[in-house]
């Protein structure tokens, strides 16, 4: 890996990590406080509304931000054209959702959703006003600025939500939190990126970006829809409290899964795009990414699966115990998702966004089949089907990587299996600690110390190369952060 590329990759991933983990840590702390004060029904209502905001944000983007990042000679006319397109789509979506609010409330049998939705959906109008500035920073690999903006925005909006929650505002605390979050991003991006759109709209820009952006839009739309599909089903056919339990389980699963995904998709795509024509170099970078990510994510995910109950009880009290099994299933399902994300990024960087779209269509088709097959057996069975689907999807993505990079299956498996096997063995070894009759906090501390100690011992004794790789990763991260 060349010195400049290596520096850019490390810098991008480091500040992307600071951004993502900093935001996730803040959201985790804020979420813990809010979960202790508010009720499952409050989170159930906001979980239903997030279905519509999440999908709307993807539609507003339209895949054009990634298109602008990938376009080497993007001009201010290009950015301005995409800005006005984003703004137009956001206005149309808000009007549509505002009118549809009574239908949404009727579908989920929650009359209060009419008022909550019409206020929360204001964030759809705010989003276009900072999307282009954000894309410009991604294009220039200025992740430090992005990290500062997001950390400030989450801190301010979270503080306001906590104050409102303690004053008895209930669901409104969560609604206002989201409006403040997007408003703060708008303000901060405007401050850090002194960009103003030109009063132009060029069809050639849309035509030029459309070929790449359309498959990306299809892929991200599918992701957004299917990331919310269980909220739709649970919200429609189960009590609102169940949506709240699933919301919490999904949130803590995403603390691990989405953090890794965001770092990889944001930090790797722009850098990989710069070496898209050098297959040998791209393969080398790909293998290092896969190995490094498996070293970091597998031990953490396996531990959370094993220690889910004491973690939930310690953080958000026993009233959230029904979310434990849901959390474990989601963690199982997403253990290979960071690797799947890397595969998608590599394909997109090579210009194979159509293949990425096909992979997502296959994955989503399998999810639909699993839901139809498992729906009548309950939420837990549906999520078990989700586990199976994700594993199949990752296996299929390995086939695409083999073809695009000429990377053999045995080498792909070799890059991840040792870390997965050791994590699984250590996780099984600490399961008997659940039977200890001690306070839940002490039990959790004992499980953490035992897991970390045993994992480090096995890696150092039987996998010296992996041990040195772990030390190298932490050495680099520490050096970069200090710099």
Kindly describe this structure.
The mean pLDDT is 86. It is built from 21 helices and no strands. With 483 residues, the protein is mainly alpha-helical. Helix 13 runs antiparallel to helix 15 (323-333). 85% of the residues lie in helices and 0% in strands.
List the helices and strands and how they pair.
Elements: H1 3-37, H2 40-61, H3 64-70, H4 76-107, H5 113-120, H6 122-126, H7 128-139, H8 143-166, H9 171-192, H10 203-227, H11 229-237, H12 240-273, H13 279-306, H14 308-316, H15 323-333, H16 337-349, H17 353-374, H18 379-405, H19 409-430, H20 440-462, H21 464-482
Helix pairs in contact: 1-8, 1-12, 1-21, 2-4, 2-10, 2-11, 2-12, 3-7, 3-10, 4-5, 4-7, 7-9, 8-9, 10-17, 12-13, 12-15, 12-16, 13-15, 13-16, 13-19, 14-20, 15-18, 16-17, 16-18, 17-18, 19-20, 20-21
Unreliable spans are none
Find the structural class using helix and strand composition.
mainly alpha
Q: Helical percent range?
A: over 70%
State Rg.
Answer: 22 Å
Largest sheet: none
Question: Helix count, per DSSP?
Answer: 21
- Which series of helices and strands comes N to C? HHHHHHHHHHHHHHHHHHHHH
- Give the beta-strand count: 0
Strand content: under 5%
- Overall body shape: globular
Terminal-residue CA separation: 21 Å
- What's the overall average pLDDT, rounded? 86
């Amino acid at each position: 890996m060349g010195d400049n590329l290596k520096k850019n990759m490390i810098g991008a991933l480091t500040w992307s990590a600071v951004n993502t983990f900093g935001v996730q840590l803040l959201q985790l702390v804020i979420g813990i406080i809010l979960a202790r004060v508010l009720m499952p029904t409050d989170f159930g209502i906001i979980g239903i509304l997030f279905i519509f905001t999440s999908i709307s944000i993807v539609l507003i983007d339209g895949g054009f931000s990634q298109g602008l990042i990938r376009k080497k000679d993007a001009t201010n006319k290009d950015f301005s054209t995409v800005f006005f397109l984003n703004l137009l789509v956001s206005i149309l979506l808000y009007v549509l959702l505002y009118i549809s609010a009574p239908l949404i409330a009727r579908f989920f049998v929650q009359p209060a959703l009419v008022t909550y939705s019409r206020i929360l959906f204001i964030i759809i109008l705010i989003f276009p006003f900072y999307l282009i500035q954000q894309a410009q920073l991604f294009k220039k690999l200025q992740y430090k600025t992005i990290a500062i903006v997001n950390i400030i925005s989450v801190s301010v909006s979270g503080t306001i939500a906590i104050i409102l929650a303690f004053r008895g505002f209930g669901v409104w605390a969560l609604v206002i939190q989201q409006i403040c979050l997007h408003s703060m991003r708008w303000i901060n991006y405007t401050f850090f990126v002194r960009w103003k759109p030109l009063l132009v709209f060029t069809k050639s820009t849309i035509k030029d970006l459309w070929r790449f952006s359309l498959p990306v839009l299809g892929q991200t739309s599918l992701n957004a829809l299917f990331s919310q599909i269980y909220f739709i089903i649970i919200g429609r056919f189960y009590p609102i409290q169940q949506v709240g339990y699933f919301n919490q389980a999904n949130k803590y699963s995403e603390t691990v899964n989405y953090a890794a995904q965001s770092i990889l998709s944001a930090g790797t795509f722009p850098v990989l795009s710069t070496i898209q024509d050098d297959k040998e170099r791209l393969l080398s970078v790909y293998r290092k990414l896969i190995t490094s990510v498996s070293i970091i994510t597998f031990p953490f995910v396996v531990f959370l699966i094993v220690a889910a109950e004491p973690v939930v009880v310690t953080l958000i009290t026993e009233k959230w115990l029904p979310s434990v099994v849901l959390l474990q299933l989601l963690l199982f399902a997403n253990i290979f998702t960071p690797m799947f994300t890397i595969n998608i990024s590599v394909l997109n960087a090579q210009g194979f966004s159509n293949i990425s779209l096909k992979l997502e269509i296959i994955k989503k088709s399998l999810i639909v089949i699993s839901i139809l097959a498992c729906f009548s057996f309950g939420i837990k069975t549906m999520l078990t089907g989700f586990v199976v689907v994700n594993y199949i999807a990752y296996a299929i993505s390995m086939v695409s990587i083999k073809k695009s990079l000429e990377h053999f299956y045995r080498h792909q498996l070799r890059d991840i299996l040792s870390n997965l096997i050791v994590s699984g063995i250590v996780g099984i070894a600490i399961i008997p600690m659940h039977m200890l009759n001690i306070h839940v906090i002490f039990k959790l501390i004992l499980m953490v110390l035992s897991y970390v100690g045993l994992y480090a011992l096995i890696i150092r004794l039987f996998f010296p190369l992996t041990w040195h790789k772990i030390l190298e990763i932490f050495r680099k991260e520490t050096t970069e952060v200090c710099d």
